[in-house]
Specification:
By secondary structure, the protein is an all-alpha fold. It is built from 21 helices and no strands. Helix 4 runs antiparallel to helix 5, helix 4 crosses helix 7 and helix 14 packs across helix 16.
Length: 432
């Protein structure tokens, strides 16, 4: 693509979004730029502290369990307290708990604080997604979610590289830097972001109260959560099944690092062009295609005998990831009532948190008892099941209903957000 065309595509992708979105985007980027602890936690516990790999796995599981618990709690807080207070509480708690973790020495204390870190860091996700849905027009939401996803991966790519250098100097420095950057995110939210929770009259509150029971009884939405869990189970194998399988096949950690690096490079390089491709496409086809790319991308790994073929398989499922993330998040917003977005987003986040717990157990059991080839075949089967599920579910969603739900959600915009609305030309500017 010529440079001028690339600049035009980038400008069109980022234009027209409200200023509040860009401050939320900036907060996400800063948060991910400082995400060092998750990257070197296993090395910190085994090399620096001298604990066993089993103990490191236990700490990782407790960190994930904290995320499972806070997925629902963060969603409830988002609806009851508001998006902004939930973000401030979650980010301040994350900063404090990450800093505290760096000073823990007793194994029980490390495990307990790791659980708190997982709970605090995951509690902000429903609030971020709900606020983004509040402040961005329905027709721009897929683009906004895609840009936010790009920021997450750009920040993670940079922090992953920086984590190695920081760990060589001092592991404690990594904990303190992450705590500091998370505190900066809280300051950005406090100074630049108004509350966006839609306001309702007393009559509306009495007539249409949304609780967790409401979410659980929403069969259509819970079907999306179940399909999301299946897709997440497949994508998680990139960080849990793939390194184990490559190690058993005689490849080195650096070989795995080279193969998996393709994932981050592709997302950073292609997410904006992909966003332009998917913005006005049929979400049903995108979700079906992304599920098949994920399943058969990992299935291709069964035939890998070199780092190059492993990297090719990573390319295939990464394309599925780039299609799935913004499209699926946009679908969740469509199906969520404006005054219940926190709980709905919390339940959606839960599907990924549970997958992060189940995936290591599944991959370890299958590889130990049946071999890695069976794991990759199972990924292809799961991806196919998810594709069929999305096709059937989305086929039952008439266009009129989708448009109506979007209009209803957009109609619930908060007074604060409306007061902050600016002409489109002014809103195009990024805070960068």
């Amino acid at each position: 693509m010529p440079l001028a065309a690339l600049r035009r595509a980038t400008r069109e992708t980022v234009s027209g979004l409200p200023r509040e979105f860009w401050w939320l985007w900036t907060s996400t980027l800063v948060n991910r730029l400082g995400a060092f602890v998750a990257t070197f936690m296993a090395l910190y516990l085994t090399l620096d502290r001298g604990y066993s790999a089993s103990y490191a796995g236990l700490v990782a599981a407790l960190h994930g369990l904290g995320g499972v618990v806070s997925s629902i709690g963060g969603g409830v807080m988002t609806d009851r307290l508001g998006r902004r207070p939930t973000l401030l509480i979650a980010q301040a708690s994350t900063a404090a708990s990450v800093a505290l973790l760096g000073f823990m020495h007793h194994p029980v204390a490390i495990a307990a604080v790791a659980f708190l870190v997982g709970a605090a860091s995951n509690a902000s996700r429903p609030a971020v997604q709900a606020m983004m849905a509040d402040i961005v027009r329905p027709e721009d939401r897929v683009r906004a979610f895609s840009l936010n996803y790009w920021a997450i991966n750009l920040g993670f790519a940079v922090s992953s590289m920086a984590a190695g250098f920081i760990a060589e100097v001092s592991y404690l420095s990594g904990f303190l830097i992450e705590a500091g950057m998370t505190a900066v995110c809280a300051v950005v939210v406090f100074v630049k972001l108004p509350e966006s929770r839609p306001e309702r009259t007393a009559t509306e509150k009495a007539a249409d109260e949304v609780g967790l029971g409401t979410v659980l009884r929403d069969g259509r939405f819970m079907s999306v959560v179940g399909l999301s869990f299946l897709v997440a189970l497949v994508f998680q194998q990139g960080s849990v099944g793939l390194p184990v399988a490559m190690g058993e096949a005689g490849f080195s950690p650096s070989d795995y690092g080279l193969a998996i690096a393709v994932n981050g490079v592709l997302i950073v390089a292609l997410q904006i062009p992909v966003t332009r491709f998917i913005e006005h496409r049929d979400p049903r086809r995108l979700l079906v295609l992304s599920s098949l790319l994920a399943g058969y991308g990992f299935g291709l790994t069964a035939f890998a005998g070199s780092v190059g073929v492993f990297a090719l398989a990573v390319c295939v499922w990464t394309l599925g990831e780039m299609l799935n993330a913004p499209t699926q998040t946009g679908l969740v917003v469509r199906l969520s009532p404006a005054h219940g977005r926190g709980r709905y987003q919390g339940m959606y986040t839960l599907s990924w948190s549970v997958a992060a717990l189940v995936a290591p157990l599944m991959s370890g059991y299958v590889i130990d008892h049946y071999g890695a080839e069976w794991l990759w075949g199972l990924c292809a089967v799961v991806g196919t099941v998810a594709a069929v599920g999305y096709g059937a579910l989305m086929h039952r969603l008439p266009a009129e209903a989708e448009a109506g739900s979007e209009a209803s959600a957009d109609g619930g915009a908060s007074t604060a957000a409306k007061a902050k609305a600016k002409p489109e030309a002014e809103a195009e500017a990024s805070p960068a």
